[in-house]
Amino acid sequence: MGSANKTQSAARKARIEEMRRAEQSRQRRNRILTVAASTVVVAALVVGGVFVVKSQDDGKKDTAGDSKAQGSGHFVTGKDGVRTWTGKLTRNHVQTTVDYPMHPPVGGDHNPVWLNCNGNVYTKPVKDENAVHALEHGAVWVTYTDQAKKADVATLTAKVKQTPYSLISPYPNQSAPIELSAWGHQLSVTSANDPKVAAFFETYVQGKQTPEPGASCTGGTM
User: Fold this and answer.
1) Cα(203)–Cα(182) distance, integer angstroms
2) Nearest to 198 by CA among 80, 40, 47, 63
3) How far apart are CA 175 and CA 42, in angstroms?
4) Is 189 in contact with 174 (CB distance < 8 Å)?
5) Separation CA 176–CA 187 (nearest Å)
6) CA distance 142 to 126
7) Residue (of 141, 130, 142, 158) closest to 219 by Cα position
8) Mean pLDDT over residues 14-27, rounded?
9) Which residues contact 200 (CB under 8 A, 6 or more apart)?
10) Are the CB atoms for 94 and 70 separated by under 8 Å?
11) HEC assignment per residue over the chain
12) Residue 93: φ, ψ to 5°
């Protein structure tokens, strides 16, 4: 049994590493596309500013998405202590703030720009809307309050630094000292040494719940 678990873990790590390499290649392609797109934009502006009008219209569509309801739902706690959100989690891109039904949020409408989640450590609170976009990409978001022990925060920080598709930040308004969040799932713990922490990372970093598996966790916002 232990051998099978080690094999699965090794395969998962190899898959994540392959995603990182693919992400780097995608970023190089994006830089080329950005240059090409910039040339097109300049040409459009010279012709008659059509692109500007189109961008304004698209911006209105993005903002309008914020008014859509997140949908009703509630958490159901499994035997492993992980809470799963039962309601539909919308995925519209919006430019304004979102009133999430849970804190930290585990999904819903979000900012078009994701929060960098390539083992990133944030020492100040981050915007929910950007973090939710990171969850959509398959990241695990670790959050903590001032009630969490410094040693636990240090342990979790080290874990995140070693784990692609993860991030950590303080979150003053959550109910538990430490929360781990993935798209549609959340776990509360009081200690970084709780075995459920490692299990959560193993299950939800690029897990089956990911709406956009393999999507970038770099090149977003800090």
Assistant:
1) 10
2) 80
3) 50
4) no
5) 9
6) 12
7) 130
8) 65
9) 82, 140, 180, 182, 187
10) no
11) CHHHHHHHHHHHHHHHHHHHHHHHHHHHHHHHHHHHHHHHHHHHHHHCCHHHHHHHHHHHHHHHHHHCCCCCCCEEECCCCCEEECCCCCCCECCCCCCCCCCCCCCCCECCCCECCEEEECCCCCCHHHHHHHHHCCCEEEEECCCCCHHHHHHHHHHHHCCCCEEEEECCCCCCCEEEEECCEEEEECCCCCHHHHHHHHHHCCCCCCCCCCCCCCCCEC
12) -90, 125
In this prediction the pTM is 0.75
Token pair in block for residue 145? 């309050």
Token pair belonging to 74: 């509630």
Give the whole-number percent of the chain exceeding pLDDT 70: 69
pLDDT of 79-136, one tens digit each? 999 999 999 999 999 999 999 999 999 999 999 999 999 999 999 999 999 999 999 9
CB atoms inside a 10 Å sphere around CB 68: 13
Joined together, the tokens standing for residue 156 give 């979790």
Structure token digits, residue 91 = 């995925």
Distant-in-sequence, close-in-space partners of 208: CB < 8 Å, separation ≥ 6: none
Question: Per-residue pLDDT averaged across 166-193, rounded?
Answer: 97
Backbone angles phi, psi at 19, to 5 degrees: -65, -35
83-85 and 75-77 strand pairing:
antiparallel
For tokens 């538990």, the residue is: 176
Q: How far apart are CA 104 and CA 89, in angstroms?
A: 14
